[in-house]
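User: Second chain of the day. Same drill as before.
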Amino acid sequence: MPKSSTKKSEKPIEELSYEEALAELESIVEALEGDAARSKLEEAIKLFERGQALAARCGVLLEAAQLKVKQVAGDEIIPFEEESE
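Assistant: Same format as last time:
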């Protein structure tokens, strides 16, 4: 398991931006999906727990962003639709 994914950010989760939390979460998922994760159960459990906390942090930040958009745009948020060519 790459140590860079676990030691990359020792910042408390509450201080991470959405981008930081998502990047660390992605590296944890990659580490847990790798073969090395199967060799050290305790390390895999720690990664999983941090991943759960990071996912929750991303959810909180997304909800806060959605609330800000609603405050600016009102309740009439129009869903994004891709333009067809």
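Residues 3-7+14-73 form one domain.

User: Great, on to the next one.
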